[in-house]
Amino acid sequence: MKNYLNNSIKIVGMVAIISLFSCKEENGLAPEYMPDMYRSPSIETYVDYGELRGKQGDDSLRNTLTARKPVEGTIHRGFTPYPYENSIEGYNQAGEFLKSPFDYTEQSVAKGKELYGMFCVHCHGGAGQGDGSLVEREVFPPLPVKFTESLELPEGKMFHTITFGKGLMGPHASQLTQEERWQLIHYIRVGFMKKPLTADMGQTAVVADTNAVVQ
Amino acid sequence: MNKITRINSRGTLLKLALIYFSFLFVQVNLSAQDGEKLFKTTCTACHKLTSDRLVGPGLAGVTEKRSKEWLMGFIKNSQEMIANGDKDAIAIFEEYNKVPMPAHPFSDEELAAIIDYIANPEASSAKKEEPKEAATADAGAEVDPLVLEGQKLFKNNCKACHSIGTDKVVGPGLKGISDKRSHEWLVKWIQNSADLIASGDPDANAIFEEYNKVPMPAQPVSEEDIKAILAYIANPPADKKTTTATEEVVATAEEDSSMVTFIVLAVICVSLLVVILMLNKTRTMVAKANAEKAGVEYTGPVSLVEAFKYTLSNNKGYVAVVVVVLVFTGLVNLMGGAATIGVHQGYKPEQPIKFSHKIHAGDDKIDCNYCHSSARHSKTSGIPSLNLCMNCHTYINGGDKTFLYNGEEYPMAEEIKKIYKHLDYDPKTGKYGDNPTPVKWIKVHNLPDHVFFSHQQHVTVGNQQCQTCHGPVEEMDVVGQHSKLTMGWCIECHKGTGVSTKDNGYYDEMHKRMPEEFRNKVLEDGKLTVDEIGGMECAKCHY
User: Fold this and answer.
1) Cβ A139–B364 below 8 Å, yes or no?
2) What pLDDT digit, counting tens, does each position of B280-305 carry?
């Protein structure tokens, strides 16, 4: 009888101890069971080298960056080299010679509108009057540029500005692909500067062609 | 008519315009205060009043370095000066990589006002006449005592009939009233509106008519008081600080009370234990005495443990019930615990730079995609590199503002300085050094290696809002993991979520090629859901 009692006490104790382990760790990070199911042996984005499978515990690898700059001179697929340099001469040249390689279509304008809401609206404002939420909250000064009908700004200069920045505006090339930059310009020109959709943009004036943007 | 058509050369038109504008401004006496206004709307985009460089040079002490005439000429048309061979102008042009300062067609009076303001910015803010100006200058900094006084006065004298918004209460809402009416008019109206109406003032009579000829009672307030009230209306202080303060008090109070409960419980436990020990001792003594009296030797339990075992073995029924209950609760607990293995819901690490999503995404209303721009194009949503911070933080340096992070208040400038330090950026010269270091951000959302997830698929094709999975990030100052990110959680969403195939050539083609029978089955309910296009296949995510 005593044996039976002792055993049952031990079982209860064990269960209690095991259930204690199910408690969360600090910061809410949960325990891991069989880390080889969680950690990748290959290098994953933003993961410390010291966290890779088989490398855990190797402190010499800790704090090694996995986010690296691409090798110098590499370009991503679909990239077209940009010939104008980041200077006032480049700005003027872009204004004179650079034209949108993509046709102005309803699709490109719609896509531009979506992008404008993501990348521009907090400074340039919903109506392009330079009164976005940042300006409204007085954390940013009022913008000198207002996208109005009377604004004479060639599309090349606009592209150059988005790419390299101008004045207080920073470069946005790392956030927007070249095509997206053009779509933005299409929207700003058609939506705010009231340029006709098929006007003389340096390219052939076209009727909306659905495949143009895809190509 | 003929004359006008003949004036077609640009130069003449420009001159005419200039003359016209100078006429406009000659009569207006511009003070340094207007200079401040002009400076803030025109110059702050490129210049600071300190010696820090922004786009152009910092302007502290520029009025001592250059003559007034030189400055006026440079602002009006710097390129002309450069072309004319002005040495200083050319030196600046060279220093700033030949990026010229754009020409600003100000009148001489305006230029003088701006230069006066640059020469002595404090003087202008000290002699501010209009309370509104005072308010804008002090925005973000400490609340002007004038505004505080106005708040008190407003509460006591005006609030019964007016709101400081646009809402009509009894009388009209007062938002922007200082822009609508002159200060003198407002003083007269507040002190004795009936007089003003009687004097035949058109504005006063219009309001009187609009409000059904119910006059506003004359208020016994001095001109100084009115000034304070108007300052308050123009810029009511945000009561953010007071609320956060109370929140903090509540939080600490909660913490205190839980600590107190713990201590009380511990004390009770210890005293109970002492009582049990003492009782056991008494019991043994009594039992021993009884045995002695009866003339037998005491063989029963002596120590507490022995007594415990003795009791248990005499109450087997109870013991069995307790054991069964304990085993089962333990098992249930164990299962619950096992289900949390690898589930980091609620994981909320403090980051090396105290970046508040609440400020950036919530208050500033910056779209998630602005910083996490690769979410639309790639598997990971992307932690932005520091060049992106600098798109705004070349200008925004935090000043003396503070912000809340994880319930504690921190100075903004300190955190922004960390960006500068990592970039090896000197805000004084606006130049980057050659020793940048990466920020060791802590990754919050981690998926196990055996599952594939792509942001692009969900954001670009699926049109999912970030908040669907990440929760209200715009309300979190420290970002934590909102959802479970378990397979059950994924499947739940995949089961019923519709897929929009509009303008998506891929789906048009796919549906065209489908066997008709299958197509009808899938599109039976008129809705295409994720599970119908393979969202429940194992190999969709596990391969």
Assistant:
1) yes
2) 989 888 988 988 888 888 888 888 88
pLDDT score, position B167: 59
Give the chain A residue whose CA is nearest to the CA of B444.
A29
- Closest in B46, B327, B337 to A167, CB measured: B46
For residues B13, B18, B23, B27, the Cα torsion angle rounded to the nearest 10 degrees is: 160
Q: How far is B41 from chain A (nearest CA, A)?
A: 6
**Distance between CA B143 and CA B137 in Å, rounded?**
11
Residues from chain A that touch B395, judged by Cβ atoms under 8 A, are: 140-141, 168
Q: Where in chain A is the domain with CATH 1.10.760.10?
A: 88-214
Put simply, the answer to whether A31 touches B323 (Cβ < 8 Å) is no
Residue with token string 């290959």? A42
CA-based nearest distance A202→chain B, Å: 27
| Residue of higher predicted confidence among B220 and B463 | B463
The one-letter code for the residue type at B74 is F
Is B309's CB within 8 Å of A5's CB?
A: yes
Nearest CA in chain A to B394: A168
> Taking CA atoms, what residue in A is nearest to B367?
A118
Asked if A144's CB is within 8 angstroms of B449's CB, the reply is no
Of the candidates A22, A23, A168, the beta carbon closest to that of B46 is on A168
User: What's the gap in Å between the CA of A73 and the closest CA on chain B?
Assistant: 20
Residue B160 identity: A
The verdict on a CB contact (< 8 Å) between B373 and A176 is: yes
Q: Please say if the pLDDT value at position A137 is more than 60.
A: yes
- As a whole number, the mean pLDDT across chain A is 79
Chain A residue with the nearest C-alpha to that of B448: A38
Fold matches, B2-126 and B140-234: yes
Confidence of residue A21 (pLDDT cuts 50, 70, 90): low
Q: Are B126 and B136 in contact (CB under 8 A)?
A: no
Other residues' Cβ atoms within 10 Å of the Cβ of residue B87: 7
Number of H helices, E strands in chain A: 8, 0
Output B394 or A54, whichever has higher pLDDT.
Answer: B394
Q: Which CATH number fits domain B140-234: 1.10.580.10, 3.40.190.10, 3.40.50.720, 1.10.760.10?
A: 1.10.760.10
Span B2-126 CATH architecture: Orthogonal Bundle (1.10)
Within 10 A of A175 (CB to CB), how many other CB atoms are there?
25
Pick A88-214's CATH classification: 1.10.730.10, 1.10.760.10, 1.10.260.40, 1.10.3720.10: 1.10.760.10
Asked if pLDDT for residue A83 goes beyond 50, the answer is: yes
d(CA A108, CA B406): 42
Three-class secondary structure of residue A11 per DSSP: helix
Looking at per-residue pLDDT, the higher value among A15 and A160 belongs to: A160
Q: What residues does each domain of chain B span? A: 2-126, 140-234, 240-339, 357-483, 486-543
